[in-house]
Specification:
With 266 residues, the protein is of the alpha+beta class. The protein is 28% helix and 17% strand. It binds 2-oxoglutaric acid. This is Phytanoyl-CoA dioxygenase.
């Protein structure tokens, strides 16, 4: 299970990276399995029933580190929204524009996750997925973010074989151009929660001051003022995830919610 500090980092940045968590034996099988195609799964199928027992996808999502992270973020019994194999072909000439995988979707108290699995090492020239840390709570519509180029602090994934990245559904991302001689594979599964996403992780460290530090993180591309809204929105999400309506970072949400006429100051 994830810790509170890890979940707070996910709430701030919109992603969680698990390097080389898939064993080499599975990574070696993966490209053939992905080339053969993963059978389609109807929207809303429980993850536990979506992939045949013993199949690659079932084993991938059952690995303890992967299953623990999934459970910590979307809880028990998530459903599969959709899955897809994304291959960036060698010398393909263009990158995918930056986008979010959703229409404007800023649910204050719930989120989906996108699991992205990279079966082989991804080097700098192989078209690793670009993502923009801390972009997931901004109100933008799907491909409208494609007009933005080269935001300061964006990360182009470079990772060892067997890496799994879990992304908040709203994060701005896109596959980059593959300038290498090798196809770049990635298998994605989007998961929807079926339970309230409240305290689903190991909360032993909920009082750790590093939780607040994570939620205060300011990313380099943030505007001085609009960037503050991101911290505000994180606090709202953290309140929903912990069930603690008094949590705050530097009094920001408390101040904005102060409505004495309504008899509430929280
Ligand atoms: O191929 C990639 O790295 C990213 C694919 C993508 O953007 C997506 O699955 O929405």
């Amino acid at each position: 299970m994830l810790t509170s500090v890890q979940v707070a980092r996910f709430v701030a940045s919109g992603s969680l990276r698990l390097d080389a968590v898939v064993p080499p034996g599975m990574n070696e099988q993966a490209v053939a399995v992905l080339d053969a195609g993963i059978p389609p799964v109807p929207y809303g199928t429980p993850l536990a029933e979506a992939f045949a027992p013993g199949s690659f996808a079932q084993r991938l999502t059952s690995l303890p580190a992967v299953a623990g992270a999934i459970r910590s973020l979307v809880g028990p019994g998530p459903t599969v929204d959709h899955h897809a194999v994304h291959v960036r072909e060698p010398h393909q000439g263009s990158a995918q524009p930056l986008h979010g995988d959703a229409i404007i979707d800023v649910r204050p108290d719930a989120f989906d996750i996108q699991l992205m699995y990279y079966p082989h090492e991804v080097t700098t020239d192989m078209g690793g997925t670009l993502s923009v840390p801390g972009s997931h709570l901004r109100r933008t519509n799907e491909t409208d973010t494609g007009r933005y180029q080269n935001l300061r602090g964006q990360t182009r994934l470079v990772c060892p074989a067997g890496t799994v990245v879990l992304l908040h559904h709203g994060i701005w991302h896109g596959g980059r151009r593959n300038d290498s001689d090798t196809p770049r594979y990635m298998f994605k599964i989007r998961l929807n929660p079926t339970v309230p996403q409240v305290r689903l992780w190991n909360t032993d460290d909920l009082g750790d001051p590093r939780v607040g530090d994570e939620l205060r993180t300011v990313f380099d591309w943030y505007e001085p003022a609009a960037g503050r809204l991101e911290v505000h929105n994180r606090v709202l999400l953290w309140r929903a995830l912990t069930g603690d309506d008094t949590f705050d970072v530097d009094h920001w949400v408390t101040r904005v919610n102060n409505r004495p006429a309504l008899g509430s100051n929280a």
